[in-house]
Amino acid sequence: MVLLEVAKKSLLAAEKHLALNALISVQSRPELFSQVQASQERISAGESKSPIDGQLIAVKDNICTTDFPTTCASKLLEQYISPFDATVVRKAKEAGAVIMGKTNMDEFGMGSHSMYSHFGSVMQPAEDGQPARSAGGSSGGSAVAVATGMCHAALGTDTGGSVRLPAAYCGVVGFKPSYGMLSRWGVIAYANSLDTVGILGRRISSVQKLYDAINGYDDNDPTSITPQTRERVQDRLSRNRRRGQGLTIGYPEEFNLVELDDSVRNTWEKTLAHLNLQSHKVVPVSLPHTKHALSAYYVLAPAEASSNLAKYDGVRYGYRDPADRLQDGLLFSPTRANFGAEVRRRIIAGAYSLSSEAIDNYFLKAQSARRIIQRDFSNVFAQPNYLITDTPEEGRGGEGVDVLIAPCALSKAPFLEDVKMQKSPLDSYVNDVLTVPASLAGIPAICLPVMHGENDSVGMQVMAQYGDEETMWEVAKLIEEGLGPKAD
Amino acid sequence: MPPRTPTMAYICHTCLRTLHLRLPHPSIPLRKLTTTTTTTPDFETGTFRKDLKSTLKSEHKSRQSLKHSAFPPAYTITCGLEIHAQLNSPQKLFSRSDTSISAPPNSHIAPFDAALPGSQPRFNKSALLPAIRAAVALGCRVNAVSRFDRKHYFYWDQPAGYQITQFYSALGNDGCVVLYAHDTPLVGSGGNGGEGVKVGIRQVQLEQDTGKTIASANVSLVDLNRVGAGLIEIITDPFDLPGVEFASAVVKKLQATLRAVEACVVGMEWGGLRADVNVSIRPKGTDALGQRCEIKNLSSLKLVEEAITAEVARQVGILENGGVVESETRGWDVEKGTTKRLRGKEGEVDYRYMPDPDLGPVVIAPGVVESVKNGLPPLPDEVLAQLTGVGYHLSVKDAQTLMMWDEGEARVIPYYKDVVEKVTTALGPAAQKQKKGKEIGKIVGNWLIHELGGTLTTRTLSWSQNPLSPTTLASLLTHLLTNRITSATAKSLLSTLASPSPSETRTIEQIIEQENLAIKPLSEEELEGIVRRTVASDDDGGRSAGVLAQIRALEGGDGAGKGREKKRKGLASFFVGKVMKELAGRVKAERVEGAVEKVLKEVV
């Protein structure tokens, strides 16, 4: 009864770490065990549905499930139960995975420390006598659930780094696929053009297994990449991959910020040196417009958010304030005042940047900045973005790089109390500076822990050209094998 | 280019073949209420009845005032229209739920329609074809690539908090609609009646419909069935109004055009078409347009006229008193028969238009527009020309009556043509000999409008419920025109056939045969016998005897000439009528007249 033992151990971990606030809903013991039992019987009978059959999966609470409420950690959706499963959840279930619970997060995915939650802050387990550290955000609950052994892997969402940053802070693997690979049907939108479902796990292999189970085209998601396009992109990429020779690994100079902690910079260098030792070429590259990425992101994402969150007026579902209009006739304002401070801040910022007086200077400018940033990436990769072009010559070819390696966070996880002392909420936005560029470009990126000293790790990020998860996995595994934490 | 590549909605020739070019007509329910709401709220009936009453009262009041209203001569009135028309599509614009007119409330809602968290739009190509037809029929340039944008505002019947529309790049631009003298007499007065007056169409765009609110005193009930149904919004250029009827004529013409190409088939009375009207006035002789005010959500032609009249009066009042017209959004106050301020410039809603990040562009393959254009049914002006031409000989008025049946029911004209063709074929060479004013097209038109139309109206049947097939009507008229039955018989037959009983399976021939309805070949002697009996009858309280006495008196008198002859004829026709009645119209009147004359000569 191996699976059942694992499940029991996971639930014990969940109970032990209840105070970390990683979970908003948990599956009942009997139901969970009966599902695991069923998987075990299938596996014993040689009828395993997939490599994740019977594995416990935690799901971020902005991904719709019929078995649990889907709250987005918001008062407005505190009681909301979706009538449908998100496609990624449905696929995970069909592969035999057991959904063990829903994880805590920043309200609607807006935050970098998972502390803007209606259900209270997520925390990392405190190290002897020290205060609790930030779990990172917004998928902090998923990261802590994985780090503390509550589940085999977890689903998160990554809009500007929301899977990678918590992974870096909690010392686990966090993967954001190319935009359009994993269906967003049933994923409650924060910023549609940037939102991706991401996966967290302790090892690359567990992330990859879950990814294989839920990856694929979905007719319900208009931004899902069609099978024909997937095939074409894969075909072009595989034709022009460097085979039987060393890879070219780039490190973007613009990511070497003054604000980088020494431990982070040292680990970055160590990682590059490790790959160089394995006879891969390591070269510096320039992504000259990276400095605009953060501001472009913080215009575009709130703009889309202000639009997406307009539906939460309490009329059809969710929380409704007893008084739903102000004296001056403004509809639903009292209800919408129940959003948390950070969500309100971004709705207001987004509404402003879309207003007729500001749209030219903010939203449209940010959109063109985004295009320029994407071009930056295509200018350094060996292969072009086959979503946009079908011509291999548009890549850099021999001079280009196969992957980019950069840190994922400026420092190790800060103490939560320090975060709360920050003068401006904008201070937290800076944390996304290293993750946002890949989000704007829509390219795959994976954050994995690289050991720094005996017990500490630093999150290192591997980014690849659009659709080239294969090369990304390859390099990530080289790093994991050589520099990652010891296997359990 | 952003990294996202939402699936494009690409329409090509294959789509044209696989999608239904002719979409099913909605079956329009039988009974109408006078309000735009199709559901009678059965709660708090008192309030509802009160509302209804005050609506009727104010409609009456404003009708009265409208009669006397003409635009003040010192001003030029300019108007711009935004027409919202429901697309003839079986499914909503971005979900798989069916469109419906009279389904029980909230029975056609997909997750996306209710804006459930996590749901996403999915563009239905079936909504695109009627929209392309509309754009082509309105002479627009159909853009190869158009896009969807979100228009934000809060309202409970708008579940997402935004409406998906086309703001930055629309489906069609730069078209026009032309009004002729037959559309409104106001065109003639401009002196260019023959040419017509052109009203520019600035834009034709796809967008989502909203839900429907059924309001009463304490609660507002929301029905989401209509949410997300496909609309086209047609935005006209501003145009000068020679009279208020010109504006409603434009709406009517647009509606007729949309119906003719089956782009929009639901009439205004079902909320299928709504108009926003921009009105501005300026002193005659000046060029710069005055400040405009927008009047929102007018759901009938009458309301369009009333609202413009009232708004012009209001603006004139302001200017005459030395005031300045402010930019405002106004609504129509049913109670008062005036427009009312909804919000001023400072309260203007900033819709914060944003490209929809989930939806890709709509791409129309080269040649598709051409195919649609070639397959387009004739437009109203062409139909009118045809119906009033040598083929059918209808008067403009009758042709328009047929064309605007049930607000432009598209199946009336084919029905009419079918009947004409069937009758013509049945009559054979005789058909060529129809006298002027008695052409088959004209006769069929009269029967359709007056007899069939009258019967349907009496029974409150819509055209779609017409129980008479073209074959049946054609057969009936053929019997009439070949003198097998009299006109009176034909009328009564039509009335019988129009209330079909399931047991009635006989053909017209069989009914005529079995019910003995055919004109009897009555011999001259038989006819004269009947006339004699009638003239001599005393079963009518002595009236026959009285008439006879008067005729005798005339015969005896000396007064000569036309006066006497005329009077005598009038008196004789009394007997003709009596005989005709007795014969139930089975003998032609001319023969009866002859027989009466003959008998009278004997008797007097």
Automatic annotation (TrEMBL), chain A:
GO biological process: glutaminyl-tRNAGln biosynthesis via transamidation; mitochondrial translation
Keywords: ATP-binding, Ligase, Mitochondrion, Nucleotide-binding, Protein biosynthesis, Transferase
Cited Gene3D superfamilies: Amidase signature (AS) domain
Function, in words: Allows the formation of correctly charged Gln-tRNA(Gln) through the transamidation of misacylated Glu-tRNA(Gln) in the mitochondria. The reaction takes place in the presence of glutamine and ATP through an activated gamma-phospho-Glu-tRNA(Gln).
Main localization category: mitochondrion
GO cellular component, one term: mitochondrion
Domain Amidase: 17-471
InterPro entries noted in UniProt: Amidase, Amidase_CS, Amidase_dom, AS_sf, GatA
Record-listed E.C. numbers: 6.3.5.7
UniProt cross-references to SUPFAM superfamilies, sorted A to Z: Amidase signature (AS) enzymes (SSF75304)
EC primary class: ligase
Record field: catalytic activity: L-glutamyl-tRNA(Gln) + L-glutamine + ATP + H2O = L-glutaminyl-tRNA(Gln) + L-glutamate + ADP + phosphate + H(+)
Record bears the keyword Transmembrane: no
Subcellular location: Mitochondrion
GO MF: ATP binding; glutaminyl-tRNA synthase (glutamine-hydrolyzing) activity; transferase activity
Protein's recorded name: Glutamyl-tRNA(Gln) amidotransferase subunit A, mitochondrial
UniProt record similarity statement: Belongs to the amidase family. GatA subfamily.
From TrEMBL, chain B:
Top-level enzyme category: ligase
Domain Asn/Gln amidotransferase: 418-600
Localization of this protein: Mitochondrion
The keyword Protein biosynthesis is assigned to this record: yes
InterPro entries: Asn/Gln-tRNA_amidoTrfase_suB/E (IPR017959), Asn/Gln-tRNA_Trfase_suB/E_cat (IPR006075), Asn/Gln_amidotransferase (IPR018027), Asn/Gln_tRNA_amidoTrase-B-like (IPR003789), GatB (IPR004413), Gln-tRNA_amidoTrfase_suB_CS (IPR017958), Gln_synth/guanido_kin_cat_dom (IPR014746)
Cellular component, GO, one term: mitochondrion
E.C. code: 6.3.5.-
Subunit structure: Subunit of the heterotrimeric GatCAB amidotransferase (AdT) complex, composed of A, B and C subunits.
Name this protein carries in UniProt: Glutamyl-tRNA(Gln) amidotransferase subunit B, mitochondrial
Species assigned in the record: Choiromyces venosus 120613-1
Source lineage: Eukaryota, Fungi, Dikarya, Ascomycota, Pezizomycotina
